[in-house]
């Protein structure tokens, strides 16, 4: 895609945002790679280094070796690091400030939309949030920082201080169902959207990847911002293959101009 194409599409995307009333932004790991968090399926992504088959809830609960590996991946994945929002997150926060955002539906667990300034009550986290670790037995919650200290002190598999139960990050593992209320809300908001913007997702993991289709079936326009191909490229009204930080920043600059703010 040459720079003229991208410029024209950025302009069209900005015009679509200005003309829309119920905008849903859907994000995947690609919106956080510019914050230093690897995504999953790009070259060098987490699933190119680790086998996702090792990371199911069944394996996590039945084998200490699997739990040890999972904690290593979460440390390796930089999800515990002091990561900060990048320009893509700030552009999405700006959409809310301009009154042009119904909600964010994210597959990410890094809390970066909230850190960038989006209101937590309009961020629907389909796969949970890395801020907390919970005991699968007694339900006690620990901050991730507390668990990091344990891991970095050499404890390979942290157990619950209270009941010695299995501790698990408060995120959705393969084989686990998504939080029912959040999933239902995400489906409803997708069906009511008049503009659905997918940013940094390959759109392959369901049920999250059904959200853009719900929006399309209800008559919404679909914008996709992504470096690589996605499973819905052929259904996008506007497809922009570019870096989320740059593209979203330029779109918001145009939107602000159109809105004379
Ligand atoms: N700007 C735009 N797109 C980017 C950027 C970037 N800076 N960096 C990466 N991408 C694109 C990649 O080309 C890729 O198509 O983001 C997409 C990320 O896709 P995945 O790695 O598959 O991540 P995601 O879609 O979020 O995966 C969904 O899979 O393993 C599970 O639970 C995990 O939530 C995750 C789910």
Q: What's the SSE blueprint?
A:
Elements: H1 3-19, E1 23-27, H2 46-49, H3 57-62, H4 64-76, H5 87-97, E2 103-106, H6 112-116, E3 123-125, E4 128-135, E5 141-143, H7 144-152, E6 167-171, H8 180-192, E7 195-199, H9 211-217, E8 221-225, E9 238-240, H10 244-258
Parallel strand pairs: 1-2, 1-7, 2-3, 7-8, 8-9
Antiparallel strand pairs: 4-5, 4-6
Helix pairs in contact: 1-10, 5-10, 8-9
Bound molecules: adenosine-5-diphosphoribose.
The site of adenosine-5-diphosphoribose (APR) has 22 residues, from loops.
Estimated share of beta-strand residues: 15-25%
Small molecules bound: adenosine-5-diphosphoribose
Rounded to the nearest angstrom, the distance between the terminal CA atoms is 30 Å
The tally of structural domains comes to 2
Structural write-up:
- This protein has 261 residues and is α/β, with parallel strands linked by helices.
- It folds into 2 domains: 1-37 and 86-127 and 177-261, 3-Layer(aba) Sandwich (Rossmann fold), CATH 3.40.50; 39-82 and 130-171, SIR2/SIRT2 'Small Domain', CATH 3.30.1600.10.
- Helix content is 38%, strand content 16%.
- It contains 10 helices and 9 strands.
- The chain has helices at residues 3-19, 46-49, 57-62, 64-76, 87-97, 112-116, 144-152, 180-192, 211-217, 244-258; strands at 23-27, 103-106, 123-125, 128-135, 141-143, 167-171, 195-199, 221-225, 238-240.
- The protein is elongated.
- The mean pLDDT is 93.
């Amino acid at each position: 895609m040459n720079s003229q194409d991208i410029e024209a599409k950025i302009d069209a995307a900005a015009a679509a945002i200005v003309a829309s009333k119920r905008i849903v932004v859907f994000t995947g790991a690609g919106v956080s790679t510019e914050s230093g968090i690897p995504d999953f399926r790009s070259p060098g992504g987490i699933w190119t280094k680790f086998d996702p088959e090792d990371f199911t809830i069944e394996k996590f609960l039945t084998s200490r070796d699997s739990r040890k590996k999972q904690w290593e991946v979460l440390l390796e994945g930089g999800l515990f690091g002091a990561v900060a929002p990048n320009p893509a997150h700030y552009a999405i926060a700006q959409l809310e400030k301009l009154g042009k955002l119904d909600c964010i539906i994210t597959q990410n667990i890094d809390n970066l939309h909230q850190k960038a300034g989006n209101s937590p009550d309009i961020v629907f986290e389909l796969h949970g949030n890395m801020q907390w670790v919970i005991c699968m037995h007694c339900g006690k919650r620990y901050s991730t920082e507390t668990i990091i200290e344990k891991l970095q002190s050499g404890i390979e598999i942290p157990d619950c201080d209270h009941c010695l139960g299995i501790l698990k990050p408060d995120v959705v593992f393969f084989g686990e169902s998504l939080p029912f209320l959040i999933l239902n809300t995400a489906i409803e908001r997708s069906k009511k959207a008049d503009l659905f913007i997918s940013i940094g997702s390959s759109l392959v993991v369901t049920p999250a990847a059904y959200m853009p289709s719900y929006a399309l079936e209800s008559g919404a326009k679909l914008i996709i911002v992504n470096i690589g191909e996605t499973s819905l490229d052929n259904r996008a009204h506007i497809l922009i293959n570019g870096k989320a930080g740059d593209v979203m920043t330029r779109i918001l600059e145009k939107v602000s101009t159109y809105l004379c703010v």
